[in-house]
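Tutorial sheet, problem 5. The two components below are modelled jointly, 513 residues in total.
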Amino acid sequence: MNRLFISIWKRVFTKITMPDIYPPLLVAIFVSASAGLLGAFAILKKMALVGDALTHVALPGMALGLLFNFSPFLGALAFLVFAIFGIWLMERYSKLSTETLVGIFFSASLALGVLITPDHELVEALFGNIISLTWAEAIISAVMALILILIILILRRQLALNMVSSELAQSAGINNSRLNLIYLLIFALAVALGIRFVGAVLMGSLVIIPAAAARNIASSFNMFLGLSMLAGVLSAVISIFVWQNNGAAPGPIFILVSVGVFLVTLVIRGLKR
Amino acid sequence: MPSKIVEVKNLNVIFGQHQVLDDLSFDVNKGEVLAIIGPNGAGKTVLFHALIGLSRPTSGVINWKSNVKIGYVPQRFDIEVDLPLTTREFFYLKGGDVTDKKIKEFLDLVGIDHEALNKGISQLSVGQRQRVLVAWAVMNEPEILLFDEPTADIDIRGQQSIYHLLHKIQDQIGFAVILISHDLSVVYKYADQVLCLNSKRVCMGPPREVLSAEQLLELYGGEQTFYKHLEKSFHEDHHA
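Model answer (structure tokens):
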């Protein structure tokens, strides 16, 4: 038994001392923590589906970056910000169902993105790749994710009240419309950061699944936020280890692991009742 | 001269082709209770939304006293059954100088046990939740309270006790109240002024002066069952 433990220990920790695992691990941890935190609010706001569709807008932006040799991150961010102002204006000035319009136009942008993304980059763009990250890229991503986490934590009271009741928020002096825009812009940044990890197709899951898992067992709001980040980080670390051990792409592994975490929390929730 | 808390002048709210509020004007003075009555779809809740800045008026002005503190009790507080938010956390969402001591003080005021603090807000009964909402709304000692009466969730007895409670708190804090009510006996009992609303102002004044059977028929003309209910409480009140 002891020998088995030592062999597992050696296996895991000799692998992790290999230099190239750290940049992806760093990015995976910070990006999934920020996405998990953001996801908690997305679930409260009942925008899981809108959020998922929104992430697809990143693809044509990334594709243009790849085609014309500028940063795919900036391309994705530009397209997301553009789409977000679109949603915000729709919510503000039109009585049309945002869900439907978002569903239609953003799926169309996924189709367009698939057509214009260079063939050899397509799988990466759709399903992510953080294996080839350099230290510089990893540190920039981690710092941006950290800033994102701080912004959400600073705004958490206003965001939570806005999501519980926009009427109460307004009566407490919160500008709901401005807050919605800020939230969507934060969402755009999180998507642009996370898309390299899990890709345009799975990005929505990076935001939603850890938060859904946390919601199953959280009994207070602070616990909900903490568990949501924890579920994201846990799934991220496991996915990087799995990749390190057998070469499977971390993005899809992350999703499967987080679904596993979700199922476990679902069982716990069932047992508690 | 009584000091004005809010002055509404020629307020119009139009959604698409639909004129929801039509050239509405009224004032509310310090400590005054204004009841707003009107049929379904008369624009009552939209008026509240315009007052707090949630709906934008198409034209007209809403002049609040400067730096006014507003408390708001919404008609609906639809939260999901398992929302992970404790009652204590809900109070802290209000911001400002919230402390546990202050929360407990206001829970006492509305007659809710302190045990509720650690419970999820969604685990409270509808009646308890409304009391919590009242405590939440008055916690920063507002100068005016906007109270939108729930239409269905709460039984008549619960509803009467909530008005009794509001009246009691109003005596302590001394705020003005604008309340949307569907119950004429509440209007007679608690309101200084009544505004009959059906997109436009149908009548306004002290309840006993302006609420004639003809006015009510004009106001509720289309809603026969509702009108009968009102007529009944109107006669009961007059014969009482």
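Marking note: The interface with chain B takes residues 44, 95, 157-158, 160-161, 164-168, 170-172, 176, 215, 218-224 of chain A (CB under 8 Å). Full credit if you identified this.
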